[in-house]
From TrEMBL, chain A:
Cofactor: [4Fe-4S] cluster
Subcellular location: Cell envelope
Chief subcellular location: other
Protein species of origin: Amycolatopsis pretoriensis
4Fe-4S ferredoxin-type domain segment(s): 10-40, 92-123, 124-153
Residues that hold [4Fe-4S] cluster 4 according to the record: 113, 133, 136, 139
Positions annotated to bind [4Fe-4S] cluster 1: 19, 22, 25, 179
GO biological process, one term: formate oxidation
Name this protein carries in UniProt: Formate dehydrogenase iron-sulfur subunit
Binding site for [4Fe-4S] cluster 3: 101, 104, 109, 143
Binding annotation for [4Fe-4S] cluster 2: 29, 160, 163, 175
Keywords, in A-Z order: 4Fe-4S, Iron, Iron-sulfur, Membrane, Metal-binding, Repeat, Transmembrane, Transmembrane helix
Automatic annotation (TrEMBL), chain B:
GO molecular function: 4 iron, 4 sulfur cluster binding; electron transfer activity; molybdenum ion binding; molybdopterin cofactor binding; oxidoreductase activity
Family per record: Belongs to the prokaryotic molybdopterin-containing oxidoreductase family.
Gene3D superfamilies in UniProt: 2.40.40.20, 3.40.50.740, Dimethylsulfoxide Reductase, domain 2
Region (Disordered): 113-163, 602-630, 673-692
Protein name: Formate dehydrogenase major subunit
The organism's taxonomic lineage, starting at the top: Bacteria, Bacillati, Actinomycetota, Actinomycetes, Pseudonocardiales
Coiled-coil stretches: none
TrEMBL record, chain C:
Compartments it resides in: Cell membrane
UniProt keyword list: Cell membrane, Membrane, Transmembrane, Transmembrane helix
Protein family according to the UniProt entry: Belongs to the NrfD family.
Organism name: Amycolatopsis pretoriensis
Record's bilayer topology term: Multi-pass membrane protein
InterPro entries, sorted: Electron_transfer_protein, NrfD-like
Primary subcellular site in the record, as a coarse category: membrane
Gene3D superfamilies: Formate dehydrogenase/DMSO reductase domain
Cellular component GO terms held in the UniProt record: plasma membrane
Highest classification ranks of the organism: Bacteria, Bacillati, Actinomycetota, Actinomycetes, Pseudonocardiales
Name of this protein: Polysulphide reductase, NrfD
């Protein structure tokens, strides 16, 4: 393992344009990390997604989006359509995307954690130390992506560790290892960002104008994600927030406001004692 | 492919990244369609029309790869004058006997070149059908009828046929093909398949533009093409197309069969099939093959590599019976079991129901859920004396007597079922050594990771010790001699006395006087060599387990010969002589693989030549030569007697020398081409428990097709029992289009009942735009998709799609038609108890009345 | 106000997780902490200005409220020992950490002050503790607002300027309410005045929550939260009105006090419910963020 500080930041580039929705990532994650099954067996009726969302027992979640085809292009789209070209029926697209904790540069979960259980590793990832987490649950509403969650049976918070144990042993994360199409690419973040830019350019050139990156920008509201994505539609279509901002961005202002109002309380109480005693 | 072979699909995605165009032909829009360039939605069971349309496009526009076709195929061969096509006879070929529903193939032969009966060819006997009275008599030999009696080569043709190299002769194969497929126009394709004409044209353009000297197109199929009454002919259609386009034996070409279970390829190489011996040597027939000479007679005279059949067979017998097998006793040929008819799985179950088959081993199979017409299966199991189930899980086939659907309806009562069930837990692949043979014929070795838990034992353990105990118990009755004399000793190892899998591999590889063999060309017919499977000979060349080779791809060339071992002889692309032109030069720089190096006097290239390495392109075989010596330097298809790829099959297929579109046995529409509605030679199974839906029935107006989900495996024993997989697809469902949902009042997430003449099942409803109604023959046809993984046991339970299906089969390979059938659908859950058969009966009355 | 415009989502599923805290534990914790904080300050000044009755009530409320608040928090955590993990570190980026470091000493000091008051022992130490609690008291009133606002919960986060004002006001009315209920009527004058100041702040803040935050104001107006907050406003107004009579009329004072306390509860439960609601419907995430993006793109 590299010396502290010399280790480059590691992350994921998830290229959803090659995801085949096999869910190997979901299963591999559970197998490796011993994540419990959800204990529910009900059909959600949302395409082939029966996982629903990320949570304490699902650290990877593959979304399935069925939608009418809409992007018109004279060039080959690289995406198929059902029905006849030239028919009224626009055909369908079936988008699949494997979601995961974003390992934010400015991670709200980590910021608000009162115990220091959530910490940033030498790989630049955000991990819960389970023995320290006290189940206060603060990280849960703090995450702008709705990732981390308290496990009901246990009371503590759980989420993707970016396979901290595997990284420490020089291995790639279980989900990336299992992904047959390399939709999940693991590596040094800088290198991944370059690769992603190139991939978007290629897709644009080959007639997929809707390809876009999500979470790659170090100037976005969370300072860029350690796990970022190539999407083929708006983020909210996949259940992702379009413009997440780390809540602690406003924290200085909040503390200031709290201090001022606290002073107000003090002043109000003091003033109320100023009047003459009756 | 993305659904069922996701790991293999990575290469498709890689090809796509490198610019390959991906076309997906499937009734449903699947995970494969999602990442393909084109999805062609066709009606289940209509692919021959689709592929036939492509062939017609190639032939009518002259887009075939003419040099390849002339040099390497039988396009120029001239047929007999009395051959008549389906085009002449309204849907049947000459030689059809409507009584027996069989062909006499004499008229299909080449002019002046009769076909020779294949080794081991047997009666195409079918239980419960006209003709089955010949079961024990074996009088009416359809000598050349059965495809599965030819091993990996075609039927033998005794002499060189007359040819017309200009391809102009009206009776040459090329012209016959052209006439046969002329009616498969884009408009007909659209009418039969429900595919838009423009889309068909686009695909035809793409396929032909990407074939020829510089480019190759590959076709990939699996059971969407095989589970039909005309499944073998589906593959034939693709073969014709690929051969015309010069896409066989060349890199990037081929017809790639994606196989099923992890080693299902292995289980046909070293077969679990009733009619084959290892290496595609046919199983001898009880009455035709009284001696080894009779058995190999047809092939002994043969040209091509099957001409060495005697060496393969003798070496196999030597490996079975060792020193006991001697020239003087025909190498114990008489010890081999014999066929007396169709002993396929469905025929066997019928024998169970009829009380003839009393005991049954189910080893890694769950027919109560996985085989067509589940009730038929369960009635068979319920009528046995004993049943042994070896499985990882307590599957439905072991518990049918207490929780099968017939128990719920009252049709079976546990206390009245006499079957004694023995359940023996099996070790999984991680708990034993062994090899998997994959789709690419690669033998890949795996090592035991952990000891099996509890009483679980490997199948090798089971069979070895069972055999050992039986041998200990048999006396000196002469009829037990085949058991007494078997070579049956393997070193055992570990805490459970597991036989060494490596020692079995060594036996399969074979040995000669000088130790382990390294190639099947070393096999002899004099008893000096023993080999358990001739095509696997060489897997332990030099006494080393070549299947365990794991050279990383970064350390070798793109052919990757250092990864595992491919049969035969570790060659990766079959018939790769065809990758070079007749003179031995690559067809193009871009597509080069092998070439003839005149200086060195041998074939060179990254792959192992699938050809005699020093046979020059201009080699002409001497008169009267046998086996491979009879093939010239320009005959790449070395398993065929003529070394050619067959566009037309003069013998060997039960259902015709050319593929023809027939409707599935249960179809809602009439055949657009002929008054012959369905395959005339389809194999039906007459039984009260196997009623059929009438074709074009108003009562069963919808098409359904069955398939797999990535999240589950086959009959579910390996996935419905696991929480991580069960939660990913937690309930049995059906996929319907919004239009059908509206027509029948089905709601997304609600329940539906699906009805056929066999039974009714219930499923949750997924309404999806991915399923489209199709315009077929002027009508709107709705298709319903049913994954077939569910059954009554496990964590996620549901009705079994197979309970809905009938048993109707392809006559060549006895596979059931599980990809296209008819049904009705209505909202709500199905009736319970006796009300269920009553409803089904009511439907049946209406359909028949 | 923004119309619930067309927006896209993933099967209408929430994007954010609901706050994981238990109800009523955490809204109670918010309420009790606020009441305790303002009461402690009030008690100290009452001490100084010679209002023993008022001081006594204030000390008891401060200690009782803060201890109950800790109990509510521990109950939410599940295991008592887990509370100790709160004190492993002090993290300014975590309002819960800062809050724990306020709440723990505060409740300790308030308890000492109250014990001394009740037993009459160690009066000096009691007074010192009371002063300490009085200094921390105002922080007790408002840190909980930051606690809620420092989340991605849309209706809380967007309200980060307003919630402290609301919670401060509400803490004042609660403390005043407790005083009017329990303190001798002759001593409640300052409580009445503090209550009035609080009521004004509260009503102004509430109005802003309901109308000033664009789309994310909606949860404050509608549903369970809307009802609770409407009740809170009415109770505050009633309390304020009645409180004017408190110095003269015991019954009016008690009614005013009860109204204030009830209002405080309604406020906390209402705000909590509004936050939860804003995580359930993805429109509260998507639409404002989309607008923000459009604004940014527009320059
Ligand atoms: N995850 C998973 N993988 C598996 C298996 C599994 O159960 N689960 N099973 C393994 C086994 S045993 C096998 S044999 C293979 C099978 O692999 P596949 O053949 O890929 O499996 P299926 O899903 O049965 O069928 C494939 C497709 O055929 C389509 N189809 C149905 N009728 C027709 C038709 O008439 N024409 C055409 N063109 N398509 C049609 C179906 O819609 C379906 O999408 O998969 C193997 N791999
Ligand atoms: N309707 C419909 N029916 C179909 C199909 C379809 O597409 N549609 N597909 C057909 C096809 S292609 C297939 S292959 C069949 C599959 O049908 P089956 O073979 O009947 O079903 P599986 O569930 O694969 O059964 C394999 C069993 O082997 C057990 N097993 C696994 N490993 C071992 C081992 O090492 N030793 C032993 N003894 N047992 C082991 C597993 O637990 C499992 O229960 O289904 C066929 N049926
Ligand atoms: S996505 Fe959420 S849980 Fe993951 S690091 Fe960012 S804030 Fe934390
Ligand atoms: S629940 Fe655990 S990880 Fe989350 S904030 Fe609290 S202590 Fe930290
Ligand atoms: S990185 Fe590891 S923990 Fe995170 S989703 Fe992948 S497998 Fe799970
Ligand atoms: S493993 Fe890869 S291809 Fe499969 S669902 Fe996950 S990301 Fe997609
Ligand atoms: S289950 Fe096994 S055989 Fe099937 S795709 Fe995955 S790795 Fe390959
Ligand atoms: Mo299969």
């Amino acid at each position: 393992m590299a010396e502290y500080g010399t280790q480059p930041r590691m992350g994921f580039f998830t290229d959803t344009s090659v995801c085949i929705g096999c869910k190997a990532c979901e299963v591999a994650c559970k197998e490796w990390n011993g994540v419990p099954d959800r204990g529910e067996l009900d059909l959600l009726g949302s395409s082939y997604d029966n996982t629903g969302a990320l949570g304490s027992n699902t650290w990877r979640h593959v979304a399935f989006v069925e939608q009418p085809k809409k992007f018109e292009s004279t060039v080959d789209l690289g995406m198929p359509d059902v029905g006849a070209p030239g028919q009224d029926d626009p055909g369908v697209r079936w988008l699949m995307s494997s979601d995961v904790c974003k390992h934010c540069t400015h991670a709200a979960c980590l910021d608000v954690c009162p115990t220091g259980s959530l910490f940033r590793t030498e790989f630049g990832t955000v991990v819960v130390q389970q023995d320290i987490c006290n189940g206060c649950g603060y990280c849960v509403p703090a995450c702008p992506y709705g990732v981390i969650e308290k496990r009901e049976s246990d009371g503590r918070a759980f989420k993707c560790t970016l396979c901290y144990d595997r990284l420490g042993a020089g291995m790639e994360p279980a989900c990336a290892k299992a992904c047959p199409t390399d939709s999940i690419q693991f590596g040094e973040l800088d290198e991944l960002r370059e690769r992603a830019d190139e991939r978007v350019r290629d897709l644009h050139d080959s007639g997929v104008p809707e390809a876009r990156l999500y979470g790659h920008d170090p100037d976005d509201g969370v300072g860029g994600d350690g796990a970022f994505f190539l999407l083929l539609d708006e983020p909210e279509v996949y259940g992702l927030p379009p413009d997440p901002v780390v809540t602690t961005h406003d924290l200085p202002a909040m503390w200031k406001r709290a201090a001022v109002t606290a002073a107000g309380v003090a002043a109000a109480v003091a003033m109320s004692f100023l009047g003459r005693r009756r | 492919m993305a659904e069922c072979h996701p790991v293999g699909f990575q290469w498709v995605m890689e090809a796509k990244a490198r610019g390959a165009k991906i076309i997906h032909v499937d009734p449903r829009f699947t995970r494969t369609s999602a990442v393909s360039h084109v999805h062609a939605a066709l009606r289940a069971g209509s692919d021959i029309a689709f592929l036939g349309g492509l062939i017609n496009h190639v032939l009518s526009e002259g887009k075939d790869f003419r040099e390849y076709v002339l040099a390497y195929t039988n396009a120029a061969a001239i047929l007999r004058e009395d051959f008549q096509d389906t085009e002449d006879l309204d849907g049947v070929f000459s030689g059809y006997d409507p009584e027996k529903r069989q062909y006499d193939m004499t008229t299909w032969e080449y002019e002046g070149a009769p076909t020779v009966p294949a080794a081991g060819s047997t009666d195409p006997e079918r239980p419960g059908e006209p003709g089955s009275e010949s079961q024990h008599g074996g009088e009416e030999h359809q000598q050349t009828a059965r495809a599965d009696t030819y091993g990996s080569g075609g039927a033998a043709v005794a002499a060189k046929p007359k040819t017309d190299e200009t391809l102009q002769h009206p009776r040459c194969v090329y012209q016959v093909l052209k006439r046969h497929f002329a009616r498969y126009t884009p408009e007909l394709v659209a009418d039969v398949c429900g595919l838009p004409v423009e889309q068909f044209r686009e695909i035809a353009e793409a396929v032909t533009a990407n074939s020829g000297r510089d480019r190759t197109t590959a076709w990939v199929y699996s059971v969407g093409w095989t589970h039909h009454t005309v499944g073998a002919q589906y593959i034939r259609t693709a073969s014709i197309l690929q051969t015309l386009l010069g896409n066989i034996g060349r890199p990037g070409g081929g017809i790639l069969a994606l196989r099923g279970h992890a080693s299902i390829q292995g289980s046909t190489d070293i077969p679990t099939l009733f009619n084959l011996l290892p290496g595609y040597i046919p199983m001898p027939h009880a009455h035709q093959h009284q001696s080894l000479d009779e058995f190999v007679a047809a092939d002994a005279g043969k040209t091509g590599f099957w001409g060495n059949m005697r060496s393969y067979a003798v070496s196999l017998l030597k490996s079975y019976w060792g020193d006991s097998a001697q020239p003087g006793n025909d190498f114990r040929f008489d010890y081999l079991p014999r066929l007396t008819g169709d002993h396929g799985t469905y025929a066997t179950v019928q024998k169970q129901i009829e009380g003839e088959c009393k005991g049954y081993f189910l080893v890694g199979e769950n027919p109560a859920v996985g085989s067509a017409n589940g009730k038929f299966q369960r009635l068979g199991l319920a009528n046995l004396d004993w049943l042994v189930v070896r499985d990882l899980q307590l599957i439905e086939s072991a518990t049918f007597w207490k929780d099968g659907p017939e128990v719920e309806t009252g049709e079976l009562k546990p206390e009245e079922i006499g079957t004694e069930v023995f359940f023996l837990p099996a070790a999984a692949h991680t708990e034993k050594d062994g090899s998997f043979t994959n789709t690419q014929r690669l033998l890949q070795w795996h090592h035991k990771a952990v000891e099996p838990p509890g009483d679980a034992r490997s199948d090798l353990w089971f069979y070895y010790h069972l055999g050992r105990l039986i041998r200990e118990r048999v006396g000196d009755d002469p009829r037990d001699a085949p058991i007494r004399d078997l070579t049956w000793s393997y070193p055992v190892e570990g805490p459970t006395d597991d036989p060494s899998a490596e020692s079995v591999l060594a036996e399969i590889n074979g040995h000669g006087p000088d130790g382990p063999l390294s190639a099947y060309t070393q096999l002899k017919d004099d008893g000096s060599t023993a080999c358990g499977c001739w095509i696997y000979c060489g897997v332990r060349a030099d006494g080393k387990n070549q299947a365990a080779n794991r050279q990383p791809r970064t350390e070798q060339d793109w052919v990757a010969k250092g990864w595992a071992w491919a049969w035969p002889a570790n060659r990766r692309i079959l018939y790769n002589r065809a990758s070079a032109d007749p003179d031995g030069k690559p067809w193009s720089e871009r597509k080069k693989l092998l070439s003839w190096d005149a200086e060195q006097g041998k074939w060179v290239g990254p792959d192992v030549p699938d050809f005699e390495p020093t046979k020059a392109p201009d080699h002409e075989p001497p008169e009267g030569a046998k086996a491979q010596d009879a093939l010239g330097g320009r005959d790449p298809f070395i398993m065929q007697t003529d070394g050619k790829a067959w566009l037309y099959v003069p013998a060997g297929l039960a259902d015709g020398p050319l593929p023809t579109h027939y409707e599935p046995f249960e179809s809602p529409v009439e055949n657009a081409l002929y008054s012959q509605q369905e395959s005339p030679t389809r194999q039906t199974l007459e039984s009260p428990s196997n009623p059929y839906n009438p074709a074009r029935s108003e009562v069963y107006p919808y098409v359904f097709t069955t398939y797999r989900l990535t999240e589950h495996h086959t009959a579910g024993g390996m996935s419905r029992t696991l929480p991580y997989l069960s939660e990913l697809q937690p309930e049995f469902f059906c996929e319907v289009s919004p239009a059908l949902a509206a027509e029948r009042g089905l709601e997304n997430g609600g329940w539906a009942t699906i009805i056929s003449a066999r039974t009714a099942i219930e499923a949750r409803v997924l309404v999806t735009e991915r399923v489209k109604p199709l315009k077929v023959r002027g009508r709107t046809i709705h298709q319903i998709g049913l994954p077939y993984h569910w059954g009554p046991n496990g964590l996620t339970r549901g009705d079994a799609a197979n309970d809905l299906l009938s048993i109707v089969m392809d006559p060549n390979v006895h596979i059931q038609e599980s990809k296209a059938a008819t049904c009705d659908i209505r909202p709500g859950r199905r009736p319970r108890g006796a009300a269920l058969p009553a409803m089904v009966e009511e439907y049946r009355r209406r359909a028949d009345g | 106000m923004v119309e619930p415009a067309e927006f896209k989502s993933y099967y209408g599923r929430p994007i954010l997780k609901e706050p994981a805290w238990k109800q009523p534990d955490v809204p109670l914790y918010l309420f009790l902490g606020g009441a305790a904080g303002a009461s402690a300050t009030m008690a100290a000044l009452a001490d100084v200005t010679g209002r023993p009755g008022l001081a006594r009530v204030g000390k008891l409320v401060a200690s009782g409220g803060s201890i109950a608040s800790v109990v509510a928090l521990i109950h939410d955590l599940g295991k008592p020992t887990r509370f100790l993990h709160m004190l492993r570190v002090l993290k300014p980026t975590s309002p819960l950490s800062v809050g724990s470091w306020i709440l723990s000493p505060f409740s300790g000091l308030a308890a000492v002050a109250a014990a001394s008051e009740v037993t009459g022992k160690l009066p000096a130490i009691g007074r010192l503790a009371g002063a300490g609690a009085a200094v921390l008291g105002p922080a007790m009133c408002t840190y909980t607002a930051v606690l809620l606002a420092d989340t991605a919960t849309p209706s809380w986060h967007e309200a980060h300027g307003t919630l402290p004002v609301l919670f401060a006001g509400s803490a004042l009315t609660s403390a005043a309410g407790a005083a009017m209920l329990a303190a001798p009527e002759g001593e409640v004058g300052p409580a009445v005045r503090a209550g009035l100041a609080g009521a004004v702040a509260e009503l102004v803040a509430e109005h802003h929550l309901e109308t000033g935050l664009g789309l994310v104001s909606e949860p404050y107006r509608t549903g369970r939260a809307g009802k609770l907050l409407k009740a809170a406003k009415a109770l505050t107004a009633a309390g304020a009105g009645l409180s004017v009579l408190a110095s003269r009329n015991r019954v009016a004072g008690a009614l005013a006090g009860a109204a204030y306390l009830a209002s405080g509860l309604c406020t906390r439960f209402g705000v909590y419910a509004a936050g939860v609601e804003s995580t359930r419907d993805p429109k509260y995430v998507v639409i404002p963020q989309r607008e923000r993006l459009t604004r940014r793109a527009g320059g």
